[in-house]
Amino acid sequence: MQRTSWRLAATLALLAFTACRPEFELKKFTNNETLYTASLREYQRQHWDNAISGFEKLTTDLPARDSLLPRSYWYLASAHENQGEHLLAAQSWSRLVETFPDDSLADDSALESARSYARMWRKPQLDPTYGETALASYNTLIGLYPNSSLVPTAQKEIGALENKFAIKDFDIGNYYYGKKAYDSAIIFYKGVLTKYANSPTAREAALKLVQAYTKIRYREDASEMCTELRQRYPRDGDVRQTCNGIPDVVRADSGAAKAAKPPAP
After folding, report:
1. CA 250-254-259 angle, 5° bins
2. Which helix (H) or strand (E) holds 212?
3. What is the dihedral of CA 194, 90, 119, 160, to 10 degrees?
4. pTM of the predicted model as reported, rounded to 2 decimal places
């Protein structure tokens, strides 16, 4: 009983303290500088709602050439991200890039915008619109800031994103394969190899492509695919099993001597 009373008293004290804490009221701040300082303090305290309110007002009130404006966009975006509001975060970071392309935060913002869009495409099976927007944002970083130290990071993350696209096409191919619609399956497997040749999923797509070719007796296509697989994965057990009994393509030696012409009469 005493323990319960103590816990109740502690809870009530905490609620009373919270109720007495002064609210973050925008009208209290008479100029942009004090509002920026207060908003930054709220951000550092992880009071995301207050930080968003303050920085959002600053993005509308600050003059276009004020050095605090791109910083306000940055913290506004970051506060949204910390709230799990990925779309609002991505839009604020993109706004910074569009409005201040020469700012020191611009390449960082392009990267963070891409990451926020990528987070919204949670699974390859879902609508890939946000994934496509993320890819465009990564390419914006690489195109606008080719000398940025963030480019290698962006390229690595593009690889991971492209593999999700590859998985999506691969899964569609598997759906058609399961329905014995092998021609349709082949289209999607080949799409993986064409568009995402360096993705981890490309190997799986190539193996399924051989199986689909075999099902509909496309022997030459199966041979060509197995030839490429054996060259690329010479010690791969799955390749050996899938291509078992399928011969390599025999290509004519382009360097072979041509037949001599008969002597003129």
Report:
1. 105
2. helix 201-215
3. 30
4. 0.80
Six token digits for residue 232: 């690329």
d(CA 41, CA 28): 15
Could you give the CA distance from residue 199 to residue 168 in angstroms, rounded to a whole number?
Answer: 12
Token representation of residue 181: 């619609």
- Residue 62, C-beta contacts closer than 8 angstroms, at least 6 positions apart: 32, 68, 69, 72
Calpha distance 135→161 (Å, rounded): 7
Q: Which two tokens stand for residue 162?
A: 């492209």
**Hunting for tokens 């994965």 — which residue is that?**
233
- 10 Å Cβ neighbour count for 214? 19
Q: Which residue is listed with tokens 């910083």?
A: 71
Q: Considering the chain, what is the average pLDDT of its residues?
A: 88
64-81 average pLDDT score: 96
What average pLDDT does range 18-30 have in this prediction? 68
Two tokens, residue 12: 């009530």
pLDDT at 223 over 80: yes
